[in-house]
Amino acid sequence: MSDAVERIGKYVKRWYVRYLVATELYMVEPWEKVVIHVLFVLVFSLFWYFNYSIVLNGILQMRDIKRHAELH
To answer: What is the pTM for the complete model shown?
Structure first.
């Protein structure tokens, strides 16, 4: 069991390092990392909200319009 936990921990650490290298966050100050991570979370949350509220409702309305047109 602990071997699996260690492997998962190593996997997560490796992907975190890859994320830091890909975004070039490995060379900034810790407070700058926090600010950038907060901005990433904010942007992705806004994307999620937009897709959930606007796009999903638009799709549901289009599906409802098709059903309504088939009934008449």
So the answer is: 0.60
